[in-house]
Design brief:
5-stranded mixed beta sheet, 248 residues, single chain, 12 helices
Length: 248
Amino acid sequence: MAMALRLILALLLGLWAQQVSAQTLENLSESDRVILQSEIRAYLLDHPELVFEMVKIIEDRKALDQVALDTAAVNANATELFDDGFSYVGGNPNGDVTVVEFLDYKCAYCKKAHDEVAELIRSDVNIRYIVKEFPILGPESELGARAALSVLATAPQAFPKFHDQLMRFNGPINEQTLASIAADAGADPNRMIEGMGAEHVSFIINANRALARKMQVDGTPMFVIGTQMQRGYASLSDMQASVAQARQ
């Protein structure tokens, strides 16, 4: 609250300064400055609701700044985000809005958002959906990402079901459970396991991590919808709103 009051005081002084000339400010004595600050403080104490209004203004301005930074990051890395040549592309490959998701198969919020993402793709036939395997939660996350990328390379037709089942799976991720999921999805478990250590699998994971660093992504899930970034869990309505905004 003390920090908020200091920010508000600075903002109020800035607004007040817009109403007076620079010469007036330069001529303001130290005692007059103390009086002015005391009057502003007294006014805020008499009207505490202004504190929350002013904090909201500050937060809104910071949010707008972050949107601008996110848009710049998306535009600067557009090729790697939307057309890297190796990430899974689902939904409508020719859709008018692309949704990119950085995800981790051990991430609880990724799992929570999974049904929302699936419904978005099902209900909107013009969504192009890209998966960025981004394992950040330990060895099991890495195993899951490597298995998914191996399936994508060796049995691409099985990837959607494999991805769906692994995202819904809540047990320990190991070769045995991955092999079972792969077989159920229609992929050869042995080929999947053999391919998990492949050079191109490591290349993709490292490329996604490098891209995440450039875009200051340090958690999952993280969505890019159009030119905007959405960090953390996103509800279906949130994603639909972002899609609508992208179409505008």
